[in-house]
Amino acid sequence: MYDDRVTLVDHPLVQHKLSILRDKDTSCKQFRELVREIALFEGYEAMRDLPLEPIDIETPIAPMTAYQIAGKKLVVVPILRAGLGLVDGILELMPAGRVGHLGMYRDEETHQPVAYFDKMPYDVSQRMVVVVDPMLATGGSAAAAIEYLRGRGVEGTIKLVVLVSAPEGIERVLASDPDVHIYTAAIDDGLNENAYIVPGLGDAGDRIFGTK
Question: Rounded CA gap, 159 and 182, in Å?
Fold first, then answer.
């Protein structure tokens, strides 16, 4: 259906956790924990192509050449506010990673993204960037975030890690930038008249922070 720039993370554990996440009766505490756990699984896939460099070490038995991640570590960029829920899962895999913040909200009438805050590491352009947001609905916020990062000098592949996607959002993001890779745990049916993903999981921000 899509090109190789979309990875569906369909591991059985991810699908099991996602089913609980979708349930309207799942508590705020459990929802938040599941978002972090699924982000860890997806982050594992997103970091599969990190570059390595050799390093000489000694085991308790003998010297050897081992490998470590080369270059500067990644920067995780959550799209505020809901994207914050995925940050800890990514950082659990890469504790030395930096975090940049990008605030965007969706205008309720136009459904278009509006930027209101940004704070990035000074060397964001020299790092691999992983943008995180639970939902990829219309794709407007994600596309705008990627465009913003390009404006900050970010080159190479930008990884976009989301939990649930709509086909409309995937198509928009892929069309907006030739060097973006999407990682998602589900591709749902589409959007309703209010631009919410169907069947989706509701408003992820409200469910993460208990503001519904």
Answer: 6
pLDDT band at residue 106 under the 50/70/90 scheme: low
- CA–CA distances in Å: residue 26 to residues 91, 100, 105, 154, 185: 25, 29, 25, 38, 18
Report the SS3 class of residue 37.
helix
Whether 157 sits among the annotated catalytic residues: the reply is no
Whether 206 is a known active-site residue: answer yes
**Known catalytic membership, residue 3:** no
Nearest residue to 173 via CA among 50, 4, 7, 5: 5
- Virtual CA dihedral for 190, 171, 40, 204, nearest 10 degrees? -40
For residues 161 and 143, what is the distance between their CA atoms, to the nearest angstrom? 13
> What is this structure's pTM?
0.91
pLDDT value at 1 more than 60 = no
Query: What local confidence, expressed as pLDDT, does residue 28 receive?
Result: 94
